[in-house]
Specification:
Keywords: Lyase, Magnesium, Metal-binding. Pfam families: HpcH_HpaI (PF03328). Belongs to the HpcH/HpaI aldolase family. One of its GO terms (biological process) is oxaloacetate metabolic process. This protein is of the alpha/beta class. The protein folds into 2 domains: 7-239, Alpha-Beta Barrel (TIM Barrel), CATH 3.20.20; 244-296, no CATH class. The protein is 43% helix and 16% strand. The protein has helices at residues 7-12, 26-32, 53-66, 86-94, 109-118, 141-145, 160-167, 179-191, 207-220, 233-239, 244-257, 277-296; strands at residues 17-22, 39-43, 73-77, 100-103, 127-132, 153-158, 195-198, 224-227, 267-270, 273-276. The strands form 2 sheets. An 8-stranded parallel β-barrel has the order 1-2-3-4-5-6-7-8, surrounded by 7 helices. Helix 11 packs across helix 12 (277-296).
Length: 297
């Protein structure tokens, strides 16, 4: 069995677009195998009615066993352990070859510990992803993120719809009430080496609005965005991929620090701007991410 992926491998993996689809919909699953998204989330929670939960669970595990998803990471979103379906979901997922399990409504480090323990029999590469979507986690973000050091936790996905419901806040295109929460979540994730995706945009017919929200997510530092419709994949991938100007900047920084006269310097001038070693690190990462994106296209 392959060794678990390292933190460095996961940090450089393109995670621009994560498409949710109901595990109870075989046509959607078949189509997902052909779509250019980086990640697929087979949903057992919000998208599945109570009477269809067990059938959806079996369908998700069967889809994983069938394979055919190519480069895409495939996760199964389980029902919470505090529901009547959660324990059975976790047991089934732990016995599958899914890349990850996505768990809902995490509030505290103890929640992560419970989910981690439920995956004790899973294959070593299975990751634990968590939805960040409750008022209860706001004060616990650093403590929950720190669980990545001792558990399978490796990625967060924002759930702004659920947060808006709990806060009784209005979800507008600018997402003003949630901006502090978005920034706090990104900071906590970065401090602990966790990848983090922005939440869904509900207006799947308005791609201009979607792109504006995706660019806001990029501004905040998210790695990518979760999606509810295939039409959102292409604009999402475009927003979260390095552009020509980004790549030109990265190349110029690397070339400048490679000049003999700049050897051993911690700060130099590049294209009229003061540039430090931290920018060199950013430039190298940008080019490596671009190389990996090119490799899957």
């Amino acid at each position: 069995m392959p060794a678990p992926l390292t933190a460095a491998d996961l940090a450089l993996r393109p995670r621009r677009s994560a498409l949710y689809l109901p595990a109870s919909n075989p046509k959607a699953i078949a189509k997902a195998r052909t779509l250019p998204c980086d990640m697929v989330v087979l949903d057992l929670e919000d998208a599945v009615a109570p009477e269809a939960k067990e059938a959806a669970r079996a369908a998700a595990v069967a889809a994983i066993a069938e394979g055919g998803f190519g480069h895409r990471e495939v996760a199964i979103r389980a029902n919470g352990l505090d529901t009547e379906w959660g324990a059975a979901d976790l047991a089934a997922i732990a016995g599958s070859r899914a890349d990850a399990v996505l768990v809902p409504k995490v509030n505290a480090p103890e929640d992560i510990a419970r989910y981690h323990d439920a995956l004790s029999g899973a294959h070593p590469q299975m990751q634990l992803w968590a939805m960040i979507e409750t008022c209860g986690i706001v004060g616990n973000l650093p403590a929950v993120a720190a669980m990545a050091r001792t558990t399978r936790l490796s990625l967060w996905i924002m759930g702004i719809n659920d947060l808006a419901k709990e806060m009784r806040a209005q979800l507008t295109p600018c997402r003003t009430p949630f901006q502090p929460f978005l920034a706090m979540s990104v900071a906590a994730a970065r401090a602990n080496g966790i990848a983090i995706l922005d939440g869904v945009c509900n207006e799947f017919r308005d791609l201009e609005l979607f792109e504006a929200e995706a660019r806001q997510g990029l501004l905040f530092g998210f790695d990518g965005k979760s999606l509810i419709h295939p039409a959102q994949i292409e604009p999402c991938n475009t927003v979260f991929s390095p552009g020509e100007a980004d790549l030109a900047w990265a190349q110029s920084v690397i070339e400048a620090f490679g000049l003999p006269e700049n050897q051993g310097k911690g700060a130099i001038r590049v294209d009229g701007r003061m540039t430090e070693l931290l920018h060199l690190e950013q430039a190298r990462r940008l080019l490596e991410v671009a190389r990996r994106i090119e490799g899957i296209q």
